[in-house]
């Protein structure tokens, strides 16, 4: 075993809950896709059968989506607990955080809010997509800006890069910011990031039948040497 | 005369220095506590091996083991003790100083032979 192995153990333990993609990012992403689809419903040209109003259908779909999200969250949480075990995270002590970090994050947050306000005022940029992109970039920064997690940075940048030109009409009409399209794009990115996190966790925590670390030799074996 | 880096390496705490136990301690140092299944998955050890290592760590006072009842089943939780945290910290400091020492270390040159005659 080398230092890289120790680093793998520490990293996976430290970010165990964050790497549970099926519990966090995938339900969130599916929810966004659902909201995107729901947002499209009132704009659909066809009539609903049995006289159901489009608004009522929207409410029913939103409720069903919320229930499905809760259900998916708890189902995934049980899956991870049963297959990967559980841990108690270290308690975060705000007093221990350095002043530089706190000031940095406050300034970054203020800059983001101002940028969002400007983008929304000028282009009508959707908040959900910008927040999803920002979260993916924040995740990458929070986990130590690792090359192994660069997919989060790329997806975040792609999302942020998509909204502004799409809002300004630089893209072809099909991928412009029609009703619900930005939410669907953001949701898809979150699902991809969540699935990649899950695969990462599975790879980092091998099944016990293939020992990753050498077991200590038994006393009898030591006597043979 | 101060010991060479290699002599210091030989004097390291064997309980901590053993690779598998070091991995368990490293995992426990990154959280408040972890259950048996998590430690098994993160180290890739079998149940028997992990039990044996945890028992040794508990015996050395580095780890505290706790049994919890969850859904009528016993769950084993392990956490790093105060002594364990200190031992691990001093181990990493010692390793760092050894690494620097080994990079600077030069073998003592042999004494020149006395002149003949």
Written description of the protein model:
The complex is a heterodimer of chains A (225) and B (117). Chain A has 225 residues and is mainly α. Chain A is 66% helix and 1% strand. Chain A has helices at residues 3-14, 25-40, 54-84, 99-123, 127-142, 150-168, 181-204, 219-224, and one strand spanning 87-88. The two termini of chain A are 21 Å apart. In chain A, 28% of the residues are buried. Chain B is α+β, with helices and mostly antiparallel strands. Helix content of chain B is 56%, strand content 16%. Chain B is built from six helices and three strands, in the order αααβααββα. In chain B, a hairpin with a 2-residue loop joins β2 (63-70) and β3. The model of chain B has no long low-confidence stretch (mean pLDDT 84). At the A-B interface, α1 and β1 of A face α3, β1, α4 and α5 of B.
What's a concise summary of this model?
The complex is a heterodimer of chains A (225) and B (117). Chain A has 225 residues and is an all-alpha fold.
What's the arrangement of secondary structure elements?
The complex is a heterodimer of chains A (225) and B (117).
Chain A: H1 3-14, H2 25-40, H3 54-84, E1 87-88, H4 99-123, H5 127-142, H6 150-168, H7 181-204, H8 219-224
Helix pairs in contact in A: 2-3, 2-7, 5-6, 5-7, 6-7
Chain B: H1 5-10, H2 14-17, H3 19-29, E1 33-35, H4 36-43, H5 47-59, E2 63-70, E3 73-80, H6 82-104
Antiparallel strand pairs in B: 1-3, 2-3
Please tell me what the overall shape of chain A is.
globular
Instruction: Summarize the largest interface: chains and residue counts.
Output: A-B, 31 and 31 residues
- Provide the spatial order of strands within the biggest beta sheet of chain B: 1-3-2
Order of helices and strands of chain B: HHHEHHEEH
Characterize the largest beta sheet of chain B: strand count, sense, and whether it forms a barrel: 3 strands, antiparallel
Biggest β-sheet of chain A: count, sense, barrel?
A: none
Average pLDDT of chain B, rounded to a whole number, is 84
């Amino acid at each position: 075993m080398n230092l890289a192995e120790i680093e793998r153990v520490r990293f996976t333990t430290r970010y165990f809950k964050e790497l549970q993609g099926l519990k966090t990012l995938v339900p969130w992403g599916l929810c966004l896709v659902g909201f995107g689809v729901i947002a499209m419903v009132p704009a659909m040209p066809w009539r609903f059968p049995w006289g159901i109003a489009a608004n009522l259908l929207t409410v029913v779909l939103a409720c069903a989506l919320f229930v499905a999200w809760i259900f998916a969250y708890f189902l995934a949480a049980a899956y991870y607990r049963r297959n990967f075990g559980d841990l108690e995270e270290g308690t975060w002590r705000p007093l221990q955080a350095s002043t530089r970090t706190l000031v940095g994050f406050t300034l970054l947050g203020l800059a983001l809010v101002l940028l969002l306000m400007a983008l929304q005022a000028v282009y009508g940029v959707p908040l959900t997509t910008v927040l999803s992109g920002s979260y993916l970039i924040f995740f990458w920064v929070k986990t130590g800006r690792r090359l192994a997690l660069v997919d989060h940075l790329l997806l975040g940048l792609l999302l942020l890069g998509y909204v502004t030109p799409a809002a300004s009409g630089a893209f072809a009409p099909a991928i412009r910011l029609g009703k619900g399209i930005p939410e669907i794009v953001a949701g898809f990115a979150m699902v991809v990031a969540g699935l990649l996190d899950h695969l990462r966790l599975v790879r980092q925590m091998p099944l016990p039948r293939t020992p990753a670390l050498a077991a200590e030799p038994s006393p009898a074996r030591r006597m043979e040497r | 005369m101060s010991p060479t880096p290699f002599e210091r390496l030989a004097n390291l705490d064997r309980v901590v220095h053993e690779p598998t136990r070091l991995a368990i301690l490293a995992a426990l140092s990154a959280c408040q506590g972890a259950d048996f299944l998590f430690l098994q998955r993160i180290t890739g050890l079998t149940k028997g091996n992990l039990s044996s290592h945890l028992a040794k760590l508990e015996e050395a006072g580095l780890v505290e083991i706790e049994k919890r009842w969850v859904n009528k089943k016993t769950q084993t939780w392990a956490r790093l003790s105060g002594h364990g945290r200190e031992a691990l910290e001093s181990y990493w400091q010692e390793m760092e100083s050894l690494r620097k020492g080994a990079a600077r270390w030069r073998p003592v040159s042999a004494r020149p032979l006395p002149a003949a005659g």
